[in-house]
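lol forgot to send this yesterday, sorry. struct tokens for the thing we talked abt
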């Protein structure tokens, strides 16, 4: 369950970039989901804040493009086909094209450095494939701890 779920999350992240079609992120997530294990509770991913679920662009066939400056949440909620199927994580990110990243670096250099360090952590330590447009907001983005509070264990992608 965990392995498949993280493959879904990884596929979703791979598609997130300024100008990318939200439907492509939905397709990527759906294409690696094992339908025998779980289905999605709602659409995979959504906006943050007041538009959280109301206007989520992540739907099958959506041609809506992800704009630069939007705050998104990787929030893919699985509903297990059987008992005992439970895995979930949520990460907030800002999608920022190169112009916005330059503005952030100029105006808020500490924030920019933190976001770049988090993205680097996701790539180098956890094995995600991310666009430079993805600016993670949380301190442990993309991290899944299989033993909940025992943070000495974290899932990562290797050799893929």
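and heres what i got for the seq, position by position
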């Amino acid at each position: 369950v965990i392995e498949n779920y993280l493959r879904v999350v990884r596929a979703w992240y791979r598609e997130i970039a300024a100008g990318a079609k939200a439907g492509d992120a939905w397709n990527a997530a759906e294409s690696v989901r094992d339908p025998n294990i779980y289905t999605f509770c709602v659409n995979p991913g959504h906006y943050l804040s007041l538009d959280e679920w109301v206007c989520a662009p992540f739907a099958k066939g959506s041609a809506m493009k992800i704009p630069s400056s939007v705050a998104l949440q990787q929030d893919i909620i699985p509903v297990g086909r059987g008992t005992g199927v439970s895995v979930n994580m949520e990460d907030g990110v800002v999608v920022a094209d190169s112009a916005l990243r330059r503005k952030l670096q100029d105006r808020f250099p500490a924030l920019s450095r933190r976001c770049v360090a988090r993205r680097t952590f996701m790539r180098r330590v956890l094995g995600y494939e991310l666009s430079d447009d993805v600016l993670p907001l949380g301190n442990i983005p993309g991290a899944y701890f299989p033993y909940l509070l025992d943070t000495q264990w974290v899932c990562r992608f290797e050799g893929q």
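Strands lie at 38-40, 46-47, 71-75, 78-80, 90-95, 134-136. anyway ping me if u want another try
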